Amino acid sequence: MRSIFFTLINSFAIVVNAQNNYDNHILFDNSLTASSYYYSEGSSTSPSYVELNAGKFPVEEKIFFTPPNSLKLKWMSKSDGDWKISLNISTWRNREIIFSGDTLSFWCYSDEQLQLEELPFISLVDLNGINSSSIELSEVISEVPISKWFRIKIPLISFSKRNKEIDFKKITMINFSQALDDSKEHIIYLDEFKIDNNNSADKNPSVVPKKLIAKGYDKHIDLIWEPNSEEDLQGYIIYRSFDGKDFKPVGIQKKDFNRYSDFIGTQEVKVFHKITAYDADYNESEKSNLAEAKTYKMQDDELLSMVQEACFRYYWEAAHPVAGLSLENIPGDENLIAIGASGFGIMGIIVGIERGFISRDEGTSQLLKIAHFLKNADRFHGAFPHFMDGRIGKVIPLFGKYDNGGDLVETAFLMQGLLVARQYFNKDNDTEKEIVKNITDLWEAVEWDWYRKDPDNDFLFWHWSPEYEWHINHPLIGWNETMIVYLLAIASPTHPVPAEMYFTGWGGQSERAIRYRQNWGQTTEGDHYRNGNIYYGIKLDVAVGNGGPLFFTHYSFMGFDPRGIKDKFTNYFNNNKNIALINHFYCIKNPGNYKGYSDSCWGLTASDNPWGYQAHDPTLKNDNGTITPTGALSSFPYTPGESMKALKYFYNELGNKLWDIYGFRDAFNLSENWFANIYLGLNQAPIAVMIENYRSGLIWKLFMSNKEIKPMLDAIGFKEDN
Questions:
Q1: What domain range includes position 399?
Q2: What is the pLDDT of residues 30-67, one digit of tens each?
Q3: Which of 4, 413, 524, 599 is deepest in the core (most CB within 10 A)?
Q4: Do 531 and 463 have their domain in common?
Q5: Element (H, E) at 195
Q6: Cα 558 to the chain's mean position, in Å?
Q7: Which of 174, 196, 218 is the last residue of a domain?
Q8: DSSP collapsed to 3 states, 400-464
């Protein structure tokens, strides 16, 4: 039975659209981290100074325009000295910097009487490194009110007086720098940096949000409400009270979401909430209805459901409204569909049905939408592209012009999920029968043998392009995340490849295969597929080096159940367990001396990090201090004790920064005081699915029950192994 809460929240739609609209205007609203804002930098030359925290903009948590924090600018300007502090635009995976508007605005607060000439200079830098003219703030404001937030607006054209080449759509940095040498210490607070059009005279408050609902968990409260529909909506302000009377602002939510996770940090606390809406001119509505809920001590099983539920939402509430498929990352391009992540998300939807997060009818309707969309989407000899447009199903060559065709690995991830769904939706009704037929048609249309390139090839190849054919020329060679490709290619009822390719391709011993492993692993350990070395007292049968990133043990094994069977190389459940344990022991030893690593803070795998995207693994070469929650949490079947410790650490110790509406954020780096501001489609579903495999084995059972799987395993030579 679903709870009243889930019945209520499904009575109105969750809005996640036009995500770029907010990010096309807001340059800074809040810092995820206390003490300092990661996306900033500063410097000074004595005798002048600017206050920095770890070389970055200090964060103020008691004075703010939009909760819960602002930036603190404290400086002293003296002759023969200099200072500068820069606010950088936050970046994330696949973010395209395109700001829209003709005016830069921000909010300012001062507790002292400041003369206009005492204010610093301000300038801009664009994506190409072009610097704008510097502007004296005294030129654009007439006074500095005391103890009152006021808005500063600067026409962008003012910054191009001496440099007309700057691209205001591509602004990546805002600089404040020394102006008057007055030898005085000054402090101002800055918040809500925005580029927008300065043509609005709207003074009308936003519409009051309706139907606010609250639900308590271990240390946080989930809020959900009916979304506002006004065109100039910018976001919502969250108010919290512990007595139902004194409400304080504690956070904001972008207009694209009508859910908020308020991390309280303690159990057995009754909390009251109200929310308001505010528009692009910061006109705020009256407060909503009151919603109350209580945190409570959750048992381990309840914590697992809590995490699964939150991760599931990524593929349910945030699914593309036309395609029903998964977005690559959130925030991000709201039309960029990731095919592999969508396969994972399909398995996540099934977990959601079984755990009562949605009804079977709701899940059935979504799967039918997905199947219909996929039937009409771009395919290349039956294989789907890595990325496609969720509105029309056309390929998006995100990784360059040669990536404009079929991606066999992403297709295998998708098919793994679809085959799980084919077994799950087995009711004797027209809708579920249609789902099964559509999935079977998609499965049987994949020309796995085409991706062999020619009949004598030992390998399958990752990509094929209708324009550039085999230009990328990337063979699939293990050990890595692509095992599922060979399993499905051999299992195909219509376009199979010989079972021998499992040994010539995936586990190949040829010179090409050996060089391939040596090149990506930068080691000869495991370059013959077999490994046999001992790391931290643990022997690895199969792996390149000491195991690689943990997603190698997840992506191919979300549906494929490695328990109780072995090929001529190993039992992959035991081997995956050993890889996870090595990853765990490495983080305990912490040879890179990174902050936070411990018995309960571990998990090196692919994710964003402070400098971009990387497949992190337990080597000094590929470890930069970044922990990715999916690493430890998707390893629950292999390391339940170690994974539960990680779950509790991530939630209890870091939850106020790491936990949000879709569960744990993508990654964090405590040495850098950095937390990812995105969720990644490839990383959320494995948490929900692999936890379910640990708890019930459901997804494993469904995939393995497909009629094509047992003959495939027999053909390869898998045997029982107790």
A1: 303-720
A2: 999 999 999 999 999 999 999 999 999 999 999 999 99
A3: 413
A4: yes
A5: strand 185-196
A6: 19
A7: 196
A8: CCCCCCEEHHHHHHHHHHHHHHHHHCCCCCHHHHHHHHHHHHHHHHCCHHHHHCCCCCCCCECEE
Specify whether 131 is located in the same domain as 238. Answer: no
Q: What CATH number has the domain bearing residue 379?
A: 1.50.10.140
Q: In terms of Cα–Cα distance, which of 58, 1, 13 is closest to 35? A: 58
pTM of the predicted protein model: 0.95
The domain boundary, picked from 196, 212, 238, lies at 196
Chain segment 108-124, per-residue pLDDT in tens: 999 998 999 999 999 99
Give the CATH number, domain containing residue 51.
Answer: 2.60.120.430
Q: CA nearest 409: which of 377, 387, 437?
A: 387
Cα end-to-end span (Å), the chain: 37
Reduced to 3 states, what is the DSSP secondary structure of residue 343? helix
- Burial profile 154-190: b = 16 or more Cβ within 10 angstroms, e = fewer: bebeebeeeeeebebebbbbbbbbbbbeeeeebbbbb
Counting Cα atoms < 13 Å in the Cβ hemisphere of 690 gives: 31
| Residue 8 falls inside a structural domain | no
The CATH number of the domain holding residue 253 is 2.60.40.10
In this structure, what token pair is assigned to residue 117?
Answer: 């000439």
3-state secondary structure of 571: coil
Alpha-carbon distance of 690 to 688, in angstroms, equals 6
User: How far apart are the C-alpha atoms of 234 and 21, rounded to whole Å?
Assistant: 9
Q: In terms of domains, do 209 and 293 share one?
A: yes
Residues 453 and 341 in one domain: yes
